[in-house]
Design a protein that fits this description.
Number of helices: 19
Helix content: 40-55%
Shape: extended
Structural class: alpha/beta
Number of strands: 16
CATH class of the largest domain: Alpha Beta
CATH topology of the largest domain: Rossmann fold
Number of domains: 4
Length: 468
């Protein structure tokens, strides 16, 4: 039930209005002065203020200013028996929703109240959604404890407040748009639009119209004028995904916009100033595209003010189980019995770690969504994973042909194999291999010396694949 605060110095008037509004299903509060009304606003959850314009002490205009200072979205309807154009204009300039002249018909009051409350519901919902989005893309929502991702988070924190262009490179599925959104929602532009365009999904003529907009009659089917994405991103951020796919002619047009900060709609001659921050992403290495003649060097340097390289998931082993648990909780919450599914079985965890993840984080999320749907017990089990994942991990187990010796020698043999595999998987970087094995770097170095492991030519059991 929505609550309306009625403010009028006439003793009986709030009582009459309360009766009218309560009959419509609203809850009402009454006050006979501006000062008392401000106190009520601190103590109660009010959805609309209906106030007289002329009152002793704090009048309606002063009350309106005070309300807009503390609760700028709260709608205020002004009532006056002394309506003048000047007073009405002043009230609207100070943020009043509308004003009505006394005496008024009850039906007119009810209509004004209903419209004001409808608008307030939209405003509150919009703010709620913005808060949800901002929370989703806050730094605390980013998942990854690997060194590579920690460095990326540190860079985001440093460059988010700026207006510098950002180029984000990485394989498909690594989360490039997620990083771009984190940059936007942690910047001063967070209350403005984040506009994303997939450049690879549109033909060149459609992409031009999509980015720059078009005027009525610019081409067949252009029955009205349309704003482009640059205009829609005014004051906010424009994210161009798959920037490496745009044509040479489109590269020239984009370069001009970045230099001049003005656009012209397709079929138009008027220049339109635009204020935007540009972020671009690609699964290519644009630096290599420049000498090949596929990407303009001057545009590359315009885009590459800040460069972020998102590592593939196979290079973020410390993040795999962290992300898997996050996706498990996300999709388990959508099941009727979601609370009963809480973990990942050890054999399943091992399979997740051993898989190569060609589709990166996006593929991991899809796998976990599938597993949650198929799981029948309290944990995700190997049989809930795609067959190709299990088959890919079959060649990574320890060989069954172990030496017929003492337990100590057998364990040493297995330990040597695991160390050799870890070193190869980490390109012989001992710090990474030690982290993979869960031991210290000095401990790994001692074992390398103990087993006489050659870092240049790692041995492996006959017929066994040394990859994890």
């Amino acid at each position: 039930m929505e609550t309306i605060l009625i403010v009028d110095d006439e003793k009986n008037y709030p009582r009459i209005l309360s009766a009218v509004l309560e009959e419509e299903g609203y809850e009402t509060l009454s006050s006979h002065s501006g000062e008392e009304a401000l106190q009520l606003l601190q103590d109660a959850d009010v959805d609309l203020v209906l106030t007289d314009m002329r009152m002793p002490g704090m009048d309606g205009i002063a009350l309106l200013k005070a309300i807009k200072t503390s609760k700028p979205d709260l709608p205020v309807i002004m009532m006056t028996a002394h309506g003048t154009v000047e007073k009405a204009v002043e009230a609207m300039q100070q943020g009043a929703y509308t004003y009505i002249l006394k005496p008024f018909e009850n039906e007119s009051l009810i209509q004004h109240v209903a419209k004001a409350l409808d608008l307030y519901r939209v405003v509150r919902e919009n703010r709620r959604l913005r808060a949800m989005v901002a929370e989703r893309f806050s730094f605390s929502s980013l998942i990854g404890k690997s060194q590579a991702m920690q460095e990326i988070y540190a860079t985001i924190a440093k460059v988010a407040p700026s207006t510098a262009s950002v180029l984000i490179e990485g394989e498909s599925g690594t989360g490039k748009e997620l990083v771009a959104r984190a940059l936007h929602f942690n910047s001063p532009r967070k209350d403005k639009a984040f506009i994303a365009v997939n450049c690879a999904a549109l033909a060149e003529n459609l992409l031009e119209s999509e980015l720059f907009g078009h005027e009525k009659g610019a081409f067949t089917g252009a029955v009205t004028s349309k704003k482009g994405r640059f205009e829609l991103a005014d004051g906010g951020t424009l994210f161009l995904d798959e920037i490496g796919e745009i044509s040479p002619s489109m590269q020239v047009k984009l370069l001009r916009v970045l230099q001049e900060r003005v656009i012209e709609r397709v079929g138009g001659t008027r220049t339109i100033a635009v204020d935007f921050r540009l972020m671009a992403a690609t699964n290519k290495t644009l630096k290599d595209e420049v000498p090949a003649g596929r990407f303009r060097e001057d545009l590359y340097y315009r885009l590459n003010v800040i460069h972020l390289k998102i590592p593939p998931l196979r290079e973020r082993e410390n993040d795999i189980l962290l992300l898997a648990q996050h996706f498990l909780q996300k999709y388990a919450a959508q099941r009727p019995d979601g609370s009963s599914l809480s973990g990942i079985a050890p054999a399943c965890r091992q399979a997740l770690l051993e898989y190569g993840w060609p589709g990166n984080v996006r593929q991991l999320e899809n796998v976990m969504e599938r597993a949650v749907l198929l799981a029948s017990g309290p944990q995700i089990e190997p049989e809930n994973l795609p067959r190709e994942m299990l088959e890919a991990g079959q060649g990574h187990s320890i060989p069954l042909e172990l030496p017929d010796t003492s337990l100590g020698e057998t364990l040493a043999h297995v330990e040597k194999i695991l160390i050799e595999r870890a070193l190869k998987a980490c390109d012989h970087v001992q710090a990474h291999a030690a982290a993979r094995l869960g031991i210290t770097k000095s401990g790994l170095h001692q074992k390398i010396r103990k087993y006489g492991i050659s870092l240049g030519n790692l041995s492996q059991p006959p017929g066994q694949d040394a990859d994890f």
